[in-house]
Amino acid sequence: MEIDLVEHNGGSSLGHFAYTLTVVDVVTGYTRRRALLGKSQRAVLQELRFIVSQWPHRPWGVHTDYGPEFLNAHLKAFCTSADLKFTRSRPYRKNDNAHVEQKNHVLVRELVGYERYDTPEQVQWLNAIYELHDQYANHFLPMRKLVEKERHGARVRKRYDQAKTPVVRLIDSGVLTAEQARRLLSLRASLDPLALHT
């Protein structure tokens, strides 16, 4: 899983404001988000614990950038106790976290914009939106993955696989037990994509 924080400061880093913690499975594109007020190490860990507890299967690792909100004893102890392999990006290399950076743009910035959110009520509102939109994105928004890239001089030719939703990719991956897959399919059958999208 790649994880990252998105600031909601409205263009000014002064004072206390909200962040969105985005967690994405690199293989399937399955994504969960949680908003928090400030980026203290404990607050980030608390939201990460919540997301991991809601994940459809037991994850095997966590990959972060080099920010102090991630590189700390709290997160290291959590990864050790949860048997998660911990890796981090190289400094100043955003492409090391490319999957989560793309989801930050598509699933955070395009959804809630660049406004400033700095109250507990606004954080609660963001989490209510994410709760619904995570279901919509994971169950009903298909995505394609790059499978081949060829360079011919200045021209680059890319080939993608068939578009599938993250939940379908998760089921096809074979990491879920029969019960976990049944639960996801049952949830999907109970959801109304139009109601989730509006």
Helices and strands, with pairings:
Blueprint: E1 2-8, E2 18-24, E3 31-37, H1 41-54, E4 61-64, H2 73-81, E5 85-88, H3 98-112, H4 120-140, E6 146-152, E7 155-160, H5 166-173, H6 178-190, H7 193-197
Describe the structure.
The chain is of the alpha+beta class and 198 residues long. The chain folds into 2 domains: 119 residues, 2-Layer Sandwich (Nucleotidyltransferase, domain 5); 47 residues, no CATH class. It is 43% helix and 21% strand. A hairpin with a 2-residue loop joins β6 and β7. The longest helix is centred in the middle third of the chain and has 21 residues. The protein is globular, with a radius of gyration of 17 Å.
Summarize it.
The protein has 7 helices and 7 strands, in the order βββαβαβααββααα. The protein is α+β, with helices and mostly antiparallel strands.
Q: What are the defining features of this structure?
A:
three-stranded antiparallel beta sheet, Nucleotidyltransferase, domain 5, globular, alpha+beta, 21% strand, 7 helices, two-stranded parallel sheet, 198 residues
The poorly predicted ranges are none
Q: Percent of residues in beta strands?
A: 15-25%
Number of domains: 2
Overall outline: globular
* Number of helical stretches of at least 4 residues: 7
> Quick one: biggest sheet?
3 strands, antiparallel
Which class best fits the helix and strand makeup?
alpha+beta
Spell out the CATH superfamily of the largest domain. Answer: Ribonuclease H-like superfamily/Ribonuclease H
Strand sequence of the main sheet, in spatial order? 1-2-3
User: Based on DSSP secondary structure assignment, what is the total number of beta strands?
Assistant: 7
